[in-house]
Amino acid sequence: MDPLAVHKALANPARADFLRWLKTPERYFDEPYYRERGVGFHIGVCVTDIQERSGLSQSVVSGYLQILREAGLLVSERVGKWTFYRRDEETIAAFAAYVRDEL
Question: Among 47, 72, 78, 98, which has the minimal tally of Cβ within 10 Å of its Cβ?
Fold first, then answer.
């Protein structure tokens, strides 16, 4: 985990929102819609749904998600033609410990 990359990734309010939404996706996204399609939040949330909730363009959302993934905060998974994102809780815990112990 690169603490500077994590700080940079979280410096953007929209990216911080994405991370918060993915912490409790059932609060922000339509869980029955996912269940009907045989996909659970354990796989993640579809880029399209994140884009719709944010109101940002698809290209901006994809770029922001890529920054969060490269910082180690998200994991992506392809299911068919769709990409789903979920939080990487190990990296998030390591960063929280770094902030608590080092700063």
Answer: 78
Cα–Cα distance between 54 and 56 in angstroms, integer? Answer: 5
Q: How far apart are CA 48 and CA 61, in angstroms?
A: 9
Residue among 33, 45, 40 nearest 85 (CA)? 45
Topology, domain 3-102: Arc Repressor Mutant, subunit A (1.10.10)
Longest alpha-carbon distance in the chain = 45
pTM, two decimal places: 0.92
C-alpha distances in Å from residue 17, one per residue of 6, 14, 36, 48, 79: 14, 5, 26, 15, 24
Each residue's pLDDT tens digit, 11-62:
999 999 999 999 999 999 988 877 887 888 999 999 999 999 999 999 999 9
